[in-house]
Every structure is written in C-alpha cells, then in structure tokens.
From TrEMBL:
This is Bifunctional glutamine synthetase adenylyltransferase/adenylyl-removing enzyme. It catalyses: [glutamine synthetase]-L-tyrosine + ATP = [glutamine synthetase]-O(4)-(5'-adenylyl)-L-tyrosine + diphosphate; [glutamine synthetase]-O(4)-(5'-adenylyl)-L-tyrosine + phosphate = [glutamine synthetase]-L-tyrosine + ADP. One of its GO terms (biological process) is regulation of glutamine family amino acid metabolic process. It comes from Mycolicibacterium aromaticivorans JS19b1 = JCM 16368. Belongs to the GlnE family. Keywords: ATP-binding, Magnesium, Multifunctional enzyme, Nucleotide-binding, Nucleotidyltransferase, Transferase. Transmembrane segments: none annotated.
Length: 990
C-alpha cells in the first residue's frame, strides 16, 4: 500500500493568528504572506505580543523599503532568529516600530548572529558617528539619535525575542547594565559636542567629570528613565557651567531627559562645583536623603581621574551617614514623602511606588546598606540585586528571603520595562483593571503564558497579587527576621543572625532609641516555650515593621511584651494576631502611640478582639455608649456592698475607656463622639455610685429620708468631657414626706461624702475625681443644699462667677424630677427675663482679664497651653458664656450647656459672623483633640503641649493629624488658636 503524500501546511485563518483588525487579510495579501510558503512565518507573527501592530508595522516597513522589501522578506523566511527578534520588538513597541519605519535599513541589525557590544565598542560607535558628521549640533545630533534608537532596538529585540521564538532570554542584570552603557556612550557624545560648541577655535575644554546617579549610576537603568547626574569640575567657572548646561540640553533633546537636580542645593545650587566645594557642602549641609542617593553614584563620562577623586572623597561620608543625629527621622520622612506621591486611585496600579512595589525593595535594601555598610565593605555595591546578594552573604538578610525578593523585584522590573517599551514613555502604572486588551498585551510581552487553569491575563493578575503580597511580607521580614534569629534559640545548621552590635545598629536605624532594651524584649518574646515562642517568631517581623511606623516604637514594644506575658494562657490572643492582620496592625499603632491605653488593655484584654472588622465595619464602633451606660448601672446594682458595686462599675468603665480611646487613636471617632462617650460613662459611674451608697444606707428596707440629685457642671454638664476631666458636680436634696430638713440634709451630706470617697478610692484605672468646688460659696459652702436653699442663695447672693458656672448646669444622676426642677430654678438666675446686669457682664470681663494674667501655671507657654493658653479652651468657653449672659434672655436657642451647640446657635442668631463662629469652633475642637491626645500619649492629665520631638509627634498622631510630623501639627495649632484669640478679644472688648 502506497504511503499518502505529505501535505504542505495550509495558511491558517486570520482569526487563528490572533489578528482582529479588519484590514488584516488585505495586509497579509499585500505583503505576499497569504501563500502556503509563509505558514511558518505567519505562526511566528501570531506569537508577537500584539500581532496586529506587528503586521501593520511590517506593511509600513515594506512601503519604506520599496525595492529592498524582497530582501527582508526572503531573510524572514530563512532566518528564524530574525523573525523572532523583529516580530517581538515591533509587537512590543510602537515607538521602535516607528523608528524602524523611519530608518528601514536598521532591520539588518537584527539578522544573523546578534550580540550586544561591550562599553568600549559602544563608545567607539558614538565616536565614529561624531567623526563622520562633525560636532555641529544641527548635523550630528540627529545622526546620534538614530544610533541611540538603533542600540535600543537591538537590545529590545533580544530582550523580547523569546515571546515569538524560543530565543534565550537575556539576564535581567544584562538589560539594565547595557542600557546604562548606552546612556554613558550617549552622554559622552553629548559632552564632546557640547565642549566643541562652547570651546571654539581650539580652546582647551574644561576638565569635567559627570557622575551618574540613580538607576544609571547603579547600572540598572530602565528603557525610559531620567538620567540623574552631578557635575564635578576642576574649576567652577562659566565655561565649565556652559559646557555642562549645553550637554544637558543636547542629551535631553536627543536621547533622554538629563536631570541635575540631585546636585548640592538641588536646582537652586550651582550646576558645576569643584571637588572641594562638593566636600564642604556634604560635610556641613547635606541631608540624609542626599547620602542615600549617593549610594548609586558612579563616574560615567568625562574626566576619569576627577571622577575617581570625587568617589574616593565622598563615599566615606556616605557610609557614616547612619551616625547622623537626624538619620532615623529623615529616613522615615523620605518614606512618607514617597508614599504621598502616589494618588489614592492609582495606588493599586503603581508597580514602582505602590504598596509591595519596586520602591519598597529599593528603600529597604538601601537602608540596610547604610546601616551596616559602615563596618562591612562587602555591602559597598550600588545595584539593588547585587546589594541584596551581598546582604544575604553577610547574614543581614536570609538567603531564601533575598532570593524571593530578587525574583519579585525582577518580575516587577520586567513589567515596568514592557510598559515603557510600548511607547518609549516613562511610566510605572499598570493599565486599568477593566482594560483587558492592554493587560493581555502586557502578559504576552512579559513572557506570561496560560497555565492550564487560567489564560495569560488570569496568570498575570494572579502573579501580580502574589508578588505584591510577597514583597510586602518580605519588606518587613527583611529588617526583622535576622534580628529575631540573633536573639532566638540557636538551631544547628541555621544562621545565627546578626551580631549584637549589628542588631543594635539596625534597630536604631529603624527608629528604636533603646536598641539594647528592644533586643531584650525580642529575646523574651521569641524564647517563650512551645507554641507561644514559635507564633511570636512568625508574628514579630510584621509587628515590628508596623511599630517602626509609630511615634514611639520602644514604648510600643515594651507594652506588647507586657500584654503578651499577661495573656500567656489565652490561646485566642496570639491566634487573633496571627489570623487577623487588621487587629495586629491596629494594636501596634495604639501601643506605639499611647501610654494610656496599654494599661487599660492589660486589665480589659477582650477589647483587643474588638479591633477586628465586623460585617458593618470595625467592631470598636459596634457599641452604643448609652447601652454601655445602662449595662454599667445594672451590673453594679447587683451588689449590696458599695465597694463591690463600684468594682463592677469600674470593670465596665475600664472596658469602655479602652474601646473609646482605641477607636480615637485609630481615627475612627470624631472629637464630639469621644466627648459624648466619655461623658456617658462618667454619668453611669456617678449613677452607680449614688445608687450603691443609697442602698447601703437604707438596708433595713426603710425609705430614704431625702431625694438626692447630682447636677453636672462644667464639661460634664456640657456633655463634653475629655480623658483627663474631673467630674464637676453639685448635690441637691429634698426632704421626704414628714422628714425634718436638718435630718434630710445630714443624711444627704453623708451620701455625698461617701460617693466622693467611694469614687476616689485608689485604683490602677484612670482616676475618678469628683469636684464640688463650683457649688455656692465654693469650698466654704455646704456640700449639699436643699432646692429651696439653692433658690434663696442664687436670688440674693449669687456672684457673677456662680451665675456663669450655672450656664453649664445639667442633671446627670439621682432623682430625675428633682434634677429637672433644679435646672428650671437655675434658669431664673442664668437666663433672667431682662438679661443679666451690665455690672455682672463687666465683672465677668474683669475676672477673665485676671485669669489671663494670673492663672497660667508657672513655666507654661501661653501659646501652647490647651486650656488657659491663647485661643485655648477657656478663651472659647468664656466667649460663648459671655454671649449667653448677654443674649440668652432674647435668644432661647442659647439655653444650652454644650459649648459647640451653643456656638451653632450663636451663628444661627447672627450674634457673630459665621467666619468668627467657625474660628472659635475649630479652636475648641483643635484644643480639645490636643488635650485628649496629651492624656492618651502621656497616660496622665496635662494641658501643656510639649516641644518638638518624639512626644509631640505622638500627640500629633493621637490628635488625628494626617501624619506624625509634630512640627506641622504645632504650626496648625498655633495658627488656629491665634485666629480664635482675635475673635475672643473683639467679643470681650465690645
């Protein structure tokens, strides 16, 4: 039986080739590629990242070649390598396709055995171009531009060829190094042309060294990058400056943007400096970021000897930069600035500056180099991947971590290269998630293939997520895992971690002011027996990374150790931190900011579970303060013994304070909400204490000889308490039926004294101080009065300050009816029908002036005292109360004990302009937030803002400022209170 004849491959349909453009069939026919002889060529075309673009570019290239087209067509049929390189590059880069059409003979560069020239050969190519075209810029620069794009074409073709044919993929490092070599050769040519242009008639060109910085300096350049440079001249004269400026202009117009902004003093500084001038600047004025930038410095072109001298003089200063006093805060500030550069809507698409992006890797590597490079010269390398390898070899980074981070870094750099190649535009932003066509092109251009479960687009999305998560995880582990290994149990065959000295240096650079103590805490945590130690070893890298972003990581680490030791037997604690990253991250923020909350959490650890997110948001907010208040009263009511009753009340109060303070520190509550919640819990405690004492003094089942009510005064009466506020109260009683007033008063005084004593019992919780000094006659007056006694006193003897104090009187505990009747009686005094007398208003003004002059504590700064300082709480509250005294008889909406609500009424009644009302409102909110923050940070009441430093930074964070820059926060505080003070002065002067 005869064998069947071998069939020739048939031309596939257009759709099977991935061609979707309507003109595709006609374009194939136009090229003569619709015959059976071109089947293999067509399948190569179909594997191009964008086969439609590749086909359209081939049509344009055929037109440009005209009579020479058959030569290329024949070569494509014979040379598989040419097919792979040409189709890959024009399917990846529209810009290089345009270059090829404009310079059609350049296709020859992609045929045959293509290799990359070494740096010397590259320089020779650019020198030969100058030799051929001369040094007249109008003539030579266009030729140099073509040469530069030709070199990019060859490199990009080799880089992308594996997408079409199974060509070897150049190493990642090879791409960056060759791009830097091309840039060097191009800048060298631009410098020669610039020197010839400026130095006419055979004049000697100046000695000038061009120092490459950034990615070019590190020889890890992108396809499209600014090339950062610094100029060093033998003389900083006008000729040198003109040559440098002309070089920048020529290179930027022809090749790529050249940026000299990293020079001393930035764009305001001299373009060219002598070596001595550079040294003087770096010794006296340079910032930490400038030394970090110099890690990548490299003499690129120009005078080699001058460049060598520059490096020898500058680099010792680079490697001692971590000893600078401002090293840590400047490094942290740089990190914040980088994060702030990314718009929120692009954060998930930014492969350079986004979370888990390239900058995370580069920043971490550079920081570790600066920290340890002072004592280890093996770290004196400029490129990121070799630096990672050196850190791993030195034991500063785990070898597996370094390998994984390198793989992630190279993957993200590959995507960055492909995005830039497409149009030769500088970009680091992925296409939008809904632009599937662009994302699918990117996947093909990055050699990503389907995996049997997902198509190339699905694989790209999954890989991006995996790499971002891995970089974020390793970013923390990179700093802290070697630290844990240095203090953890020794395991045979594993690295011992950093030396104690290196560990201390690293912790100091990460923001820990007491690195020895921090190492002690770490050792105690990871050396716990059994499961606890193992879980801590897993948790701590991320926890320490989050702590390093807080204002006081030392205090935070100590607090974390104390809580962990107290919770040693609670399995849910470490499991929650391990399984719910939101809980762990929020806990670290709280512990690294506050001295107030950790002590509460030690005694109410269940609040940590509320740090988690629930179905409707953070569980910290799934609580109604009013419900908590009722539960507190009910809980204490189950106990006959007052001490047991108040202990039960303290337990719920402690839990509520921990919840409110945590939510406040985490930015979940506004100032008004915080004050309302704190007032609610104080009112519940007062009610519980009063009920407990009354029960204890009526045990025989008899009737109480008197009704008693507690009237809130001051911020309690205004429902605006802060963390450090006392409870200002007055006690009012009314004899029961048939009870003599003297007996009722005696019993009521006993009750009031016991309430004060019970609440004032020393405790580990924040104190419960009851202050009765606002009662009639102050400390000299009776502790308790009957309602009729109060009425008689206020009618005949009330002093202006007592009338002013009544403006905030509000019933908070005890007999509701008696409390209501008290405030109705008080209304006659504080809101009299004809208004308060002019003499009373005059006296209020006089007392205010005296308070301003005399009441500020000795040594306090009048500008930053939150209560009595300029434009502080007292200023705003006295201003509101003065307006109430003058106008409440005619404006009923001023019958309000809340400062903020009364301010709203003042604005609505147009007693002040809305701008003035807003200034007072902002001052009150700002000062209250600052005062609350002071308690949260220091753990005890205080009214004075600290000076610049770590504590002020912590106050800024606790007060809800948008970053931890205490200086910015203080400037805003001073500006807001200064403007409010101007309003206060106008009101009190009118």
């Amino acid at each position: 039986m005869a064998k069947p004849a071998t069939q020739r491959p048939r031309v596939p349909r257009v759709g099977r080739l991935g061609l979707v453009e309507p003109s595709a069939a006609a374009d194939l026919a136009r090229l003569g590629w619709d015959t059976d002889d071109h089947v293999e060529l067509l399948w190569s075309l179909s594997r191009a990242p964008d086969s439609d673009s590749a086909l359209q570019t081939m049509v344009r290239l055929a037109d440009a070649l005209d009579d020479d087209w058959p030569q290329l067509n024949s070569a494509l049929l014979k040379d598989r390598g040419l097919r792979g390189r040409l189709f890959a590059v024009i399917g990846s880069s529209l810009a290089l396709g345009d270059h090829l059409v404009a310079n059609p003979d350049s296709w020859h560069l992609l045929s045959g055995d293509v290799t990359l020239p070494d740096p010397a050969e590259l320089r020779r190519l650019f020198d030969d171009c100058i030799a051929e075209f001369g040094t007249e810029p109008m003539t030579v620069m266009p030729a140099l531009r073509v040469l530069y794009r030709d070199r990019l074409l060859v490199l990009a073709a080799l880089d992308t060829a594996s997408t079409v044919e199974n060509e070897p993929v150049p190493a990642f490092s090879t791409i960056g190094e060759h791009l830097a070599d091309i840039a060097d050769a191009a800048m060298g040519a631009a410098l020669k042309v610039a020197s010839a242009t400026v130095c006419k008639e055979g004049a000697e060109p100046p000695r000038l060294a061009v120092i490459a910085m950034g990615k070019c300096g590190a020889r890890e350049l992108n396809y499209v990058s600014d090339v950062d440079v610094i100029f060093v001249g033998e003389y900083a004269d006008s000729v040198s400056t003109r040559v440098a400026g002309e070089m920048i202009r020529l290179a930027s117009d022809t090749f790529f943007e050249v940026d000299a902004g990293l020079r001393p003093e930035g764009k305001q500084g001299a373009l060219v400096r002598t070596l001595e001038s550079h040294l003087a600047y770096y010794q006296r004025w340079a910032k930490t970021w400038e030394f970090q930038a110099l890690l990548k410095a490299r003499p690129a072109v120009g005078d080699a000897e001058l460049g060598k001298q520059y490096m020898a003089a500058i680099m010792p200063m680079v490697w001692s930069a971590c000893e600078r006093e401002d090293f840590v805060p400047e490094v942290q500030a740089m990190r914040r600035r980088v994060e702030a550069l990314v718009p929120a809507d692009l954060r998930d698409r930014e492969i350079k500056l986004g979370t888990g992006g390239l900058r995370d890797v580069e920043f971490a590597v550079q920081l570790l180099q600066l920290v340890h490079g002072r004592t280890d010269e093996s770290l004196h390398v400029s490129s990121t991947v070799p630096a990672l390898a050196a850190l791993a070899a030195g034991g500063y980074v785990g070898r597996d971590d370094a390998a994984n981070l390198t793989a992630s870094y190279e993957f993200l750099r590959l995507l960055e290269h492909r995005l830039q190649l497409q149009r030769l535009k500088r970009t680091h932003t992925l296409p939008p998630p809904d632009d599937e066509e662009s994302l699918r092109w990117l996947a093909r251009a990055a050699h990503i293939r389907p995996d049997g479960t997902h198509d190339s687009l699905g694989v790209l999305r999954a890989e991006l997520k995996r790499q971002n998560v891995r970089v974020s995880r390793l970013h923390a582990k990179l700093f802290y895992q070697p630290l844990l290994e240095s203090v953890g149990p020794s395991v045979e065959g594993l690295a011992a971690g950093l030396s104690p000295e290196a560990a201390e240096r690293q912790l100091a650079a990460l923001g820990y002011e007491g690195p020895q103590s921090a190492l002690t805490h770490l050792s105690a945590l990871v050396n716990q027996s059994g499961r606890r130690g193992r879980v801590q070893s897993v948790l701590l890298p991320r926890l320490l990374d989050w702590l390093s972003d807080t204002p006081d990581p030392d205090r935070g680490l100590l607090a974390y150790r104390r809580i962990s030791e107290a919770m040693a037997e609670q399995r849910w604690y470490l499991a929650t931190l391990r399984d719910e990253s939101a809980v762990a991250k929020r806990l670290m923020r709280v512990l690294g900011t506050s001295a107030y909350v950790p002590d509460l959490l030690m005694r109410a650890p269940e609040v940590i579970q509320q740090y988690a997110d629930g179905p409707s948001g953070p569980k910290l907010l799934d609580v109604d303060p009013e419900v908590v208040g009722r539960a507190l009263v009910a809980s204490s009511g189950r106990h006959v013994d007052p001490m047991r009753a108040i202990a039960a009340a303290r337990t719920l109060r402690r839990r509520e304070l921990a919840r409110v303070a945590s939510a406040d520190l985490l930015g979940m509550l506004e100032v008004r909400d915080v004050c309302a919640a704190l007032t609610s819990v104080w009112v519940a405690v007062l009610q519980s204490a009063l009920e407990a004492v009354v029960r204890a003094n009526t045990r025989d089942g008899g009737e109480a000889p008197a009704k008693i009510a507690v009237i809130g005064m001051g911020r309690l009466g205004g429902r605006e308490l802060g963390y450090g506020s006392d409870a200002d109260v007055m006690f009012v009683c009314e004899p029961g039926p048939g009870v003599e007033e003297s007996r009722a008063l005696k019993w009521s005084v006993l009750i009031a004294e016991q309430v004060r004593a019970l609440l004032g019992t020393p405790s580990a919780d924040p104190p419960l101080e009851v202050d009765t000094n606002l009662r009639p006659e102050g400390r000299q007056g009776p502790l308790v009065r009957t309602l009729s006694s109060y009425e008689a006193y206020y009618a005949q003897w009330a002093q202006p300050w007592e009338v002013q104090a009544l403006l905030r009187a509000h019933p908070v505990a005890g007999d509701q009816d008696l409390g209501l009747r008290f405030v109705l009686m008080a209304d006659k005094t504080r809101y009299p029908a004809g208004g308060v007398s002019a003499e009373a208003v005059h006296e209020i003004r006089r007392v205010k002036a005296r308070v301003d002059a005399e009441r500020l504590p000795r040594g306090a700064d009048p500008n930053t005292h939150t209560k009595l300082g300029r434009g502080g709480l007292a200023d705003v509250e006295w201003t509101v109360q003065l307006l109430q005294l003058r106008h409440a008889h005619e404006v009923p909406s001023l019958h309000n004990t809340s400062t903020l609500e009364t301010l709203d009424a003042i604005g609505a009644a147009e007693l002040l302009g809305e701008d003035d009302v807003d200034l007072l409102r902002q001052a009150w909110l700002t000062a209250t937030a600052a005062r609350n923050a002071l308690v949260l940070v220091r753990g005890k009441p205080t009214d004075q803002l600290p000076g610049p430093g770590r504590q002020l930074n912590a106050v800024a964070v606790a007060a809800g400022w948008h970053n931890d820059d205490g200086g910015e926060f203080l400037d805003n505080y001073l500006r807001v209170t200064r403007r409010a003070k101007a309003v206060v002065l106008r009101v009190f002067g009118s």
